[in-house]
Specification:
The protein is mainly alpha-helical and about 190 residues long. The chain has five helices and two strands; from the N terminus they run ββααααα. The chain binds hydroxy diiron-OXO moiety.
């Protein structure tokens, strides 16, 4: 509902327009894709939290801590898109989030699967950026550039851990050293 307030002298009129009345800044197509990405970020968070539980049960406390921190970061990614959608006057909508299925035998599996998952997310972000260019939605294009850089960092991070595992190996003290190393890593170190 549109509300107007007129000051005493009658010279100024302020209009308050509800969010629903704002001109929609996002196409239906982009809105749907951004809402899908909200769900994917939720899924990423749950996936890393589940992996963190697995690592904790295996006594890999450094890896568990790292993954838990990363799960929290994924929630920030989710909120950022959620807020952007709301800021455009559209409606952020949460959907069903798949159960994270993990199939892990060792710490290398953890980082191989996280690396593969991040490559999948990068593809999703790239597809989103592509749509913004097709629709000439430069505002959303600009917003998504943060995610483009973020995905570059995330792929680099998980690949660097995999490289360390391959150099150090998991025999003898190797597993202990890797777990300690991962636990000391900041998410974007
Ligand atoms: Fe791991 O970057 Fe978001 O999903």
């Amino acid at each position: 509902m549109k509300k107007t307030i007129t000051c005493i002298c009658g010279s100024y009129v302020y209009s308050f327009i509800t969010k629903q009345q704002r001109k929609k800044m996002l196409s239906e197509n982009l809105l749907k894709k951004l809402n899908t990405q909200v769900n994917l970020e939720f899924y990423s968070s749950n996936l890393y939290l589940q992996m963190s539980a697995w690592a904790d049960n295996k006594g890999l406390s450094g890896t568990a801590r790292f993954l838990r921190e990363h799960a929290a970061e994924e929630m920030q990614h989710m909120h950022k898109i959620f807020d952007y959608i709301q800021d455009t006057g559209a409606l952020a909508e949460l959907g069903t989030i798949d159960k994270p299925e993990i199939n892990l035998d060792n710490i290398r599996d953890v980082f191989e699967q996280t690396y593969e998952h991040e490559k999948f997310i990068t593809k999703q972000i790239n597809d989103l950026v592509d749509v913004t260019l097709q629709e000439k939605d430069f505002s959303t294009f600009n917003f998504l550039q943060w995610y483009v850089s973020e995905q570059h960092e995330e792929e680099k991070l998980f690949k660097s851990i995999l490289d360390k595992i391959d150099i150090i190996g998991l025999d003898g003290r190797g597993l202990f050293m890797i777990d300690r190393e991962v636990g000391n890593m900041l998410v974007h170190a």
